[in-house]
């Protein structure tokens, strides 16, 4: 395995285990079996390393969304499937789970990264809605606001609702609510 790959593998494991904020460059160097100087020859600083993984997450989420958006299903089902898939991805990815916990506890860099991730997801949803609008699948509306509302409703129900919830049933109800508002 090449040195850069060793660093990436070690950093991924440590970020998954301890989160971004609690993982030091010293720890990454030790785990990768390299010096900090070697890490800095590949990554300018810890933020550059974090941004590498962040870009991986965004690329994966975009791929998931693109694949679902191209399915031969009604728009409401595609939107629902995309959002569920995103939340499943976020819930099953240890680094993102840790990022969410750290953001709630300490804010700071973790909160900034979480907000950036959500912004990127919202942008991808916006692009899908913009395409659907051009195809006449949704009513004329403020797409940015609509995207924000859709995403925030899902986030609120799936992550902030403090009662037991069946995600599939909840998302169907959300979609029924949204369909009566803007989907044709």
Task: Describe, in plain words, how this protein is organized in 3D.
By secondary structure, the protein is mostly helical. It is 79% helix and 0% strand. 24% of the residues are buried. Helix 5 packs antiparallel against helix 9 and helix 6 packs across helix 7. It folds into two domains: 43 residues, Arc Repressor Mutant, subunit A (Orthogonal Bundle); 135 residues, Tetracycline Repressor, domain 2 (Orthogonal Bundle), CATH 1.10.357. The longest helix is centred in the middle third of the chain and has 27 residues.
Question: In summary, what is this structure?
Answer:
The protein has helices at 3-18, 25-32, 36-42, 46-69, 75-92, 94-106, 108-134, 143-160, 167-181.
Which properties best describe this structure?
mainly alpha; Arc Repressor Mutant, subunit A; Tetracycline Repressor, domain 2
């Amino acid at each position: 395995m090449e040195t850069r790959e060793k660093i990436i593998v070690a950093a991924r494991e440590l970020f998954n285990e301890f989160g971004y904020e609690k993982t030091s460059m010293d720890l990454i160097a030790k785990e990768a079996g390299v010096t900090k100087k070697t890490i800095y020859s590949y990554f300018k600083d810890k933020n550059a390393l974090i941004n590498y993984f962040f870009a991986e997450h965004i690329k994966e989420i975009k791929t998931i969304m693109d694949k679902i958006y191209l399915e031969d299903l009604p728009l409401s089902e595609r939107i629902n499937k995309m959002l569920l898939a995103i939340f499943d991805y976020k819930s099953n990815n240890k680094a993102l789970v840790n990022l969410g916990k750290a953001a709630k506890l300490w804010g700071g860099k973790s909160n900034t990264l979480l907000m950036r991730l959500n912004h990127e997801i919202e942008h991808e949803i916006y692009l899908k809605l913009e395409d659907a609008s051009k195809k006449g699948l949704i009513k004329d509306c403020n797409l940015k606001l609509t995207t924000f509302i859709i995403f925030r409703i899902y986030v609120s129900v799936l992550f902030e609702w403090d009662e037991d919830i069946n995600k599939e049933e909840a998302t169907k109800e959300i979609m029924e609510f949204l369909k009566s508002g803007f989907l044709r």
